[in-house]
Design brief:
Strand order of the largest sheet: 4-3-7-6-5
Distance between the termini: 38 Å
Order of helices and strands: HEEEEEEEHHHEHEEHEEHHEE
Strand content: 15-25%
Structural class: alpha+beta
Number of strands: 14
Number of helices: 8
Oligomer: single chain
Largest sheet: 5 strands, antiparallel
Length: about 450
């Protein structure tokens, strides 16, 4: 697919939209998960605060202690990441979990309303970041009242680890989902653009002469385009038909003056002015060649379809006509064509090609003209050769070089080869020239094979 194609653009936009949407969705899910985990852990910390509050005891000397152990064993593991601490607000004495070991929790300096739970982020053992829940309560010791700050903290690394695992799983899941959605987008784009492919196929059919209009039974979004193209084709056909009609009228209009000029040339020759007569005849022949070429161009542009034409009957008809001409009556024709060999071409075009090549060969041949046609892969290769003087190799290279026009080459090939080249060009084929083993010119071309 080309970078400028509509399919690629749609797929790129769809893919970018899918990736961005899923990326934002993944980011949002991770954030929601972190908030949910933090609330869930916060709820556990609050539960620990309640358990600690229910187990606070005072010794006879009014010092603090915690009756019994909390259920979570991490409180007893050194630097486990889960800690508790009870601080006497007035005396600043405290007791703590074994997990704190030789450190303590540095509680924020603030005044808490009694009974309210506050949440903070603080630094803990080994520079760990802790999530802290603390609560300020009043206890009756039997001798007096004490205000205590109960605190429970957990290492945020635990929350981060959970979030990281969740993010990894979400990323893998969303990547698979993105691949599925991009595949679905690719299918959607291809199905959606299929009518455009039908339009392109229809245009190829029109170009190949197999159809003259686009199918208008297409989706409503494409139908106006198909109708506009059909209207344009109809207008173009009308314009071309008018141009062909004018060209034909012009050609027919020239026939009478040209015939009159040939009659004048004959009278001049009879009077002994052969030089002037020859010049007039050469000029008339050249003008007729140009007219024939333009009429051929006008006709081949209006070809509707290619047909299966058998080569041998068409060739025999042309040779029979040439044998009745003064130049062709003494020429020996050698035909090497397998019976039933057929090609895909309009009948008039095959006659135009073979007729001009045979006429050119007859004009330059001494005694013999050979025509061969045989299968060459999926094509049929034609060779038309004569035993005349031919064209020098250097001149052949000049004639067949890219961009050189046969009718302007000055090699004596004449307009016949130019007309043949025009017809073959319509069918996407080329005319090649070479040296024949008979001594003269060898002209070759190929056409599409057709099984009849």
């Amino acid at each position: 697919m080309k970078a400028r194609s509509l399919r690629v653009r749609l797929l790129l936009v769809a893919s970018a939209a899918i990736v961005l949407a899923l990326a934002f969705a993944g980011f949002g899910l991770v954030q929601l998960f972190e908030r949910h985990v933090e609330r869930r852990i916060g709820s556990e910390l609050d539960t620990y605060l309640n358990q600690i509050a229910s187990r606070v005891l005072f010794n006879a000397d009014q010092t603090l202690r915690l009756g019994g152990k909390l259920a979570d064993p991490r409180f007893d593991q050194v630097y486990s990441g889960l800690y508790w601490q009870i601080t006497d607000e007035k005396s600043a004495t405290y007791t703590r979990s074994r997990s704190l070991w030789d450190t303590r929790l540095d509680l924020p300096v603030d005044t808490l309303p009694v009974g309210t739970i506050h949440v903070h982020d603080i630094s803990g053992p080994r520079h760990a970041k802790l999530l802290l829940h603390e609560r300020r309560l009043v206890f009756d010791t039997g001798q007096s009242e004490k205000i205590l700050r109960l605190a429970v903290a957990i290492d945020r690394a635990d929350i981060a680890a959970l979030s990281k695992d969740f993010a990894t799983e979400v990323t893998v899941s969303l990547a698979i989902l993105a691949a599925i959605l991009i595949l679905a987008a690719w299918i959607q784009v291809n199905v959606g653009l299929r009518p455009l492919s039908q339009i392109r196929h229809g245009l190829n059919e029109i170009r190949a002469g197999k159809s003259d209009r686009l199918d208008v039974h297409v989706p409503s979004e494409i139908a106006p385009l198909a109708e506009e193209v059909n209207d344009l084709l109809a207008a173009q056909e009308m314009t071309m038909q008018r141009a062909r009609d004018r060209a034909a009228d012009l050609a027919h209009g020239f026939k009478t003056p040209l015939t009159a000029l040939l009659a004048d040339a004959k009278r001049l020759r009879d009077k002994g002015d052969k030089g002037t007569a020859t010049e007039i005849e050469r000029t008339v022949t050249l003008m007729r060649g140009h007219i024939d070429r333009e009429l051929t161009r006008s006709r081949i542009r209006n070809i509707k379809a290619e047909k299966a034409i058998e080569v041998d009957p068409a060739l025999q008809g042309l040779i029979g006509t040439l044998k009745r001409t003064p130049q062709g009556e003494d020429i020996k024709f050698a035909i090497k064509i397998k019976p039933g060999l057929a090609v895909r071409i309009e009948h008039d075009d095959l006659n135009e090609i073979l007729g001009n090549l045979l006429e050119n060969a007859v004009c330059h041949a001494n005694k013999k003209v050979m025509v061969r046609a045989a299968h060459h892969g999926s094509l049929v290769r034609f060779d038309v050769e004569d035993d005349g003087p031919g064209i020098a190799q250097a001149q052949i290279s000049a004639v067949t070089s890219r961009g050189n026009r046969l009718d302007r080459s000055g090699m004596g090939a004449g307009l016949g080869l130019a007309i043949v080249s025009d017809v073959l060009d319509y069918y996407g084929k080329e005319l090649t020239l070479g040296r024949s083993k008979l001594g003269g010119l060898k002209v070759s071309f190929t056409l599409e094979s057709q099984t009849r």
